Amino acid sequence: MRIVFRLFGQLRSALENKAEVVVELDSEKTTILEAIEKLVIKHPELDDLLFSGKKIHSFYNIMINNRTIHHEELSTYFIENKQTEISILPFVAGG
Q1: Contacts with 72 (C-beta within 8 Å, 6 or more apart), sequence order
Q2: Helix (H) or strand (E) holding 48
Q3: Distance between CA atoms of 15 and 25, rounded to whole angstroms?
Q4: Are 76 and 30 in contact (CB under 8 A)?
Q5: Which CATH architecture has domain 2-90?
Q6: In the beta sheet, which residues pair with residue 56?
Q7: 44-81 confidence digits (pLDDT tens)
């Protein structure tokens, strides 16, 4: 299965301004968290930016095919489409 990751902010900067990264998954039944872990295996420079221990930092918004996924769902939400887009965006706040 082919996953296209769209990266923003410091994640994009860490990969020399790559906006997209493609990751091939071996399994047809993969959770979003497992897909993100595969991204980090392919690009270890993202590990500390994305993870604190085994959890994804809470200041990232994760979207699959433009649908927001809550952090509690990352290890239980299975990717179903053959070609899926996962976006990882920092939360934006202001005043």
Answers
A1: none
A2: helix 47-50
A3: 20
A4: no
A5: Roll (3.10)
A6: 51
A7: 999 999 999 889 999 999 999 989 999 999 999 999 87
